[in-house]
Amino acid sequence: MALKVFHRLVSAEDARSMISGEIRKIMRVTEVGLEDAVGLTAAEDVFSQYDVPPFDRSEVDGFAVDHTDVEGAQEDDPVTIRIVGSISPGEIRDVRVEKGKAVYIATGSVMPKGSDAVVMVEDTRQRGDYVDIYRSVYPGENVAFAGTDISMGDILAKAGTALTPEKIGTLAASGVAKVRVFDRIRIGIFSTGNEIVKPGADLKLGQIFDVNGYYFQTKLNSLGGISARFLGSVPDREEDMIRLIKDNLGSFDILMASGSTSAGFFDMLYRVIEEAGGSILFHGINMRPGKPTFFGKIGDKLFIGMPGFPLSSAVILNYIVIPSIRRAISGESERARMVKVPVKITPEHMQETVYPVIITRNGYAFPIMGNSGSISRIRFADGLISIPGDLKYVDAGEVVRYYPLNEREASVICIGSSDPLMDIVVLETDTNAKIVNMGSWGGVNAMKIGIADVSGIHILRNGVYNLSVMDDNLKDRSLLIRGFSRNRGFLSRTGIASFDEILNNDLTFVNRNKGSGTRDLIEEMIGNNERIRTSMRGYLWESPSEAGVAQAVAQGRADAGIGLEFYAVKLGLQYRHIKKENYDILISRDFYGSSAGKSFIESLKSLRGRESQYPGYEIPENIGEVIS
Predict the structure, then answer these.
(1) Helices 12-26 and 322-330 sit at what angle, rounded to 10 degrees?
(2) Paired residues of 229 in beta bridges
(3) Under 8 Å between Cβ of 375 and 208
């Protein structure tokens, strides 16, 4: 089985152009009733059939009058005129307002001849066949004249316009019953891989739950104009893939798959397309993440091969595929704007690089770093930023192109060290909170540049936790409040309790990433012992999270690591105590005095009494109080 070589990578813009061009060829126009049109796109200009309103009508309940008859009417000097009839909605009455006379009229009714204004019923008092009027009116007051909202022949929806409920309401008001639209694009989705299992299954080592199929289907169906259906997963066998493709080709305009798209020995999907009688239009996009994406055709049907890693595929879906569909249907270009970044960003390769970001309160785009398999980076992202491939780096304060995904207002922005209790407190304060796990020092730096509301930290210096970071710069911006304590020690399957034990038995250690509080503890424990740094297997293996360390040990990929007792209990590991650490919280001064800040403190204090749910944690009496 030959390996695939990416001979020519297309740019992201070329990929969008090619995909949108092919989609245009398969689009169909159909006519639907208004009730079925929501989310679809108008295929031609739609014009009003009637004036709106179609006649002069009253906007209130009251008395239709000639305004000159009630000039000068006041509360202490009313004008009295005779009532000569009444009109209700939908009723046509041969009644006329003559000099000194009035007609009672209900809201929405046709204005009678001879009247040019309506006095609200609240400004009148009826006495038999007469009415006392306590306020004058001007010509046209409380009257909606024919065609003042929409005139016959007005254009209500341009070709390429998405038909929202609001637009459909306007079409209905103007007499339009049916519209010609682009029919929904039918997309069939499947995942590939021997390791893929359905959520809810009993997960075995080496298996992962299917993410992409469910994400693709729900994301595409939320856009309108698309009918997407998840077909399930298929193992890495060419005959199974070919069978699934051939069985479903006639039911969809586009087939979309994730996984098996790269250039490795087991990546075969591009060959399957060719063996099914199709052709590859491009294989590889000059960007990260998402490089292995390919695009092909089988007859008049289209095929999009997406990367298997969730973040890579999510980026391709939102940055390439969805903009291509929008461009094909409406001619709409990518919804981008320029924003500043608050930190220096250095892409790893000279390729266009896309990062998920949150938008901070001052409008900066803060990148959510991590690996391409991390779906949680999309969970909290407001949008994506793109850094061109010819830039070695983007400095803090420089502008980049930003593509919104799911922008939301959040009363809490949390950047710092990850912790399950901290997440609970933040999300109890605001379910729309933005959370970026960057380690303790990442939280300190985020607080110093003014983009975080709260930052969880556990930084050990000279035997004391966290107080040492409070320099003058940080004190100007923030306070340090007491959080909680966590038991930290060696995690293993056999009861390992020291670095010497790991080193002397040639065992493998899993380290934590630089910038984390745990890494600071590890370095303090090692001290000047360079033998451990140079000879201990796995010292350079850095996990970016507490859970990652525990899972590496639980799954046998490492023999030991330093982590939380909480995860040892959860995963059934042996725990050997090192120390109790303080996980405290930097909180910006502005946020501390806000209503959201007060709610955060209340939620933090409410952890007391819930310790039994979180083994290895201790909730102190002074939780939530300022300690520096």
Answers:
(1) 50
(2) 188
(3) no
**According to the model, what pLDDT value does residue 1 have?**
42
Side chain identity, residue 144: A
DSSP designation for 107: T
- 231 neighbors 188 (Cβ within 8 angstroms): yes
How far is residue 542's CA from residue 548's CA, in Å, rounded to a whole number? 9
Measure Cα distances from 584 to 481, 519, 589, 596 in Å: 6, 17, 15, 18
pLDDT tens profile 135-154: 999 999 999 999 999 999 99
Q: What are 13's two structure tokens? A: 């813009």
3-state DSSP call for residue 595?
helix
Q: Is the pLDDT of residue 342 over 80?
A: yes
CB 346 within 8 A of CB 323: no
Query: Which amino acid, residue 185?
Result: I
What residue type is assigned to position 448 of the chain? K
pLDDT in tens, 299-312: 999 999 999 888 89
> Which secondary-structure segment (H or E) carries 552?
helix 546-554
Over residues 561-597, the pLDDT tens digits come to: 999 999 999 999 999 999 999 999 999 999 999 999 9
Nearest to residue 426, comparing CAs of 242, 159, 606? 606
Q: Which amino acid is at 109?
A: S
Name the token pair of 14: 């070329």
Question: What three-state secondary structure class fits 215?
Answer: helix
Q: How many CB atoms lie within 10 A of CB 99?
A: 9
C-alpha distances out from residue 122 to 63, 117, 132, 524, 591, Å: 10, 15, 11, 80, 48
Position 228, amino acid: A
Q: Label residue 478 by pLDDT band (50, 70, 90).
A: very high
**pLDDT tens-digit series, residues 265-303:** 445 777 888 888 899 999 999 999 998 899 999 999 999
Query: What residues have CB less than 8 Å from 162, skipping those under 6 apart?
Result: 39, 40, 41, 224, 225, 330
